[in-house]
Amino acid sequence: MGQYLRALFASDFMPHASWLGQPDIIRIHAWPDILIAVSYFLILISFFVLVRRRRDLAFSWMFLLFSAFILGCGTTHLLAVWTLWHPIYRFEGLVKAITALVSLPVALLLIRLVPREIAERQRAGDEAARLNADLESRAAERAAALVESDRLLAASERRRLMAVEAAEMGTWQWNLTDKEIFCDSRCRTLFDIPADEAVTYERFLESIHRDDRSITDACLRTRFENSQEYEIEYRTARRGQREEWIRAKGCCESGGAGGAKQVLGIFINVTESKRAELAAFRLAAIVESSSDAIIGKDLQGTITTWNRGAEMLFGFTADEAIGQSISILRASGWVDEMPRILEDVRRGVTIDRYETVRRRKDGKEVAISLTVSPIHDTAGRIIGASKSAHEITDRKRLDQALRASEQRFRTLAEAVPDMLFSAVPDGSITFVSARFQEYSGLSLECGDGVSVWEQILDPQDEALRAHTWKVAVLTGKPFEMECQIRRKDGVYRWFVVRALPVQDSAESATQWLGSCTEIHYLKTIETALRHSREELRQFAYAAAHDLQEPLRNVVNAAGMLARITGQQMDGMSAVLLKECIEGGERMHGMVKDLLAYTTAVEGIEPVPTLTDANEIVEDVRMNLKTAIAEASGEIQCDRLPVIAVGYMHAVQLFQHLIGNAVKYRRAGVAPVIRLSAVRNKADWVFSVADNGIGFDPKYEDRLFKVFKRLHKRHEYTGTGIGLAICARIVGHYGGRIWAQGRPGDGSTFYFTVPVADNER
Amino acid sequence: MKSPSETSTNILIVEDNPLDVVLLRYAFKAQTEWQTTLAVVSDGQEAMEYLSRAQGNSTDLVILDLNLPRMDGEEVLKAIRESSELRNLPVIIFSSSPEDVVRSRVDRVSVMPDCCVTKPMGIEGYSRLTQMFRKCYTKAINGQEGS
Predict the structure, then answer these.
(1) Which residues of A touch B74 (CB under 8 A)?
(2) Which residues have CB under 8 Å from A115's CB, separation 6+?
(3) Within chain A, how many helices (H) and strands (E) appear?
């Protein structure tokens, strides 16, 4: 057997390929054979599948035979390719033989079977026609059922419309391919479209408020395109009427052929609820934007709302606070009044502007003013409380006030002609006004605050300044000094520098505010005045001493001459010599009086000592004792006040007035002098009245002038300086002097002096 | 010290006004109860030189004007008071200045005269002068004796 097989597959022949020796011929044989073989096998497989699927097929054994035949055909073609290179011709011949054996019965069988198959097909066609008729009748039944359901649908539509009416809805319906939109009467009312007017999409858009039109249009178009449901709100544009808010809701259905869509929609007039919503929205915005803390809480004290003001005031964010108990704001160490507040709220009481202390998130305490009001629900039940609070230590307001006052100060600092500065207790300058900078050419940037003084004062003044400043700071008393301040061009000018401590909350002042007032002009005048006073003093001294010396010589020499040659002189010579002596003596007296006049107000103290006028009168009475006694005079004196006039001046004043009253008495009439004083506002008015010779009122002015006399020298002695001295003294104390009188009927001299400070 | 009644009193007059010298001499000559010997110098420097010389040692009284050439009266007074020999010499300031001016000028040199006499205006005053000088001189001497 094995031997036989080996022989069968022996390839002891020459292959086609080699003896043909032509590759192109091999190719045109090999490729078609391969393709035919593959085709046969594919036919075989599909046959197989058909046979296995169609189990109902008749003649299965014939199919099987047919399959064998096809398999054989394929295999012989495959072997034809194989033998091109492997010449196993014996095997090939065997396969061909088998194929031939199978093909014959197949052919015979087919000849017999084909007429039978045709008869079978005829019968199957009849059956299909019968089935089709059956289907058609069933479809007719279904159509009838559909009509019925439509009828039922129409009924439900009516019910739906009634519901729409009840909800005050308008409905619309639009087949997108149509131009016209179906709108019900309510729609037309809403959009103000007459019943006879056709409604198009464009007409519909026109009826929408201008501001809402384009956005509504865009929204609707997108929804229609994508067949989506929509729900939008817009306002209507009805001319001359108030705008109405519409809520539109609808769906878009894919319709029949051609992608045509249908839109079904409803409109509801939501104006009222919209207004309420807007009002609520505004209210919420106000609450949110309020700088006051506005907090809602329920009756258990749980925080329900928390605005930005509350965040600012208490430091908790809304997220942190809402849901917490209001007691998170309780300040420790303060009376817990929260339960009482809640109790009040429950009873419906509003707490208005209650001032208390709360604790911030960061632990700091803050003083606030609270207003707590109950919140009612629609049925009037109290369901919680709203609390609004603002800070009363109100740093912001304080800051603003401070800024305003700072601004005022700055403006003032630039408005006044003085140069202003502020300094700390060690003398360092912390601020200088623009005028200061302008004058000195210095600004605080030029160096530290202390060196400002060194730069504007000369070293001597600076030493004095530093000393005076220290004393002022130690005593807390105002600083004041006069000094020369250097101008930016190097010229020094006189200023009076003053500074006051700022009494802030600190124990000792931490700041001093100062001004530099220019007194250069005053100082120049003062210096000139001092010089002229010094000159006057020197003149007075010269008059008193140096001029007196030769005058004394004239008088004494003339006196000596008169004594030596007195008997030998003729009458004329004696008169001339007498005139010479008397003139010298008079001049001596006048110079003395002039000196008294010029020095009368020297040494007036800035704060006059207090002098009792009663004592002055007594002293004068002693001084003039002789003269008074000689004239048998009498002084009647009321109770006089204490006056702020120096003793020496008061004595001079009274002595001249009383002395004059004694001197200018009427012949043969004992002088009676009456002194009194009456208060007139801030002055004492003194009067010295006599019963003497009086004077002609037209000469009143002359009375008080230097060396002006109303009488001849031989009638009354004196140079006429007394009343001038009186006027000078009174004038220097800020008073006035005048006189009243008539010839032969006495005189009254008046003068005023200011009431002493402590008696005002 | 000699008593005024025993012998003549040596007086040094320091005065630059010739009329005053004339009037003083006239006044001393016109009285009889006080025996005096007058020496006159006309400025302060001269006065100090005179007093330091031998004859100056016998001077009993100085009548001193204030306004003097070269050396003022108050300086002469100071020099006398500071000199060990002359310290107790009686000095009368004789000046035309009012008494307060004299006081302030003398105070400036911190020494005291024994008396101050104002020069009279009018010759009538001179007749009383010698009595005033004598009273002052007597008082000065008695004061020294007492102490």
Answers:
(1) none
(2) none
(3) 24, 22
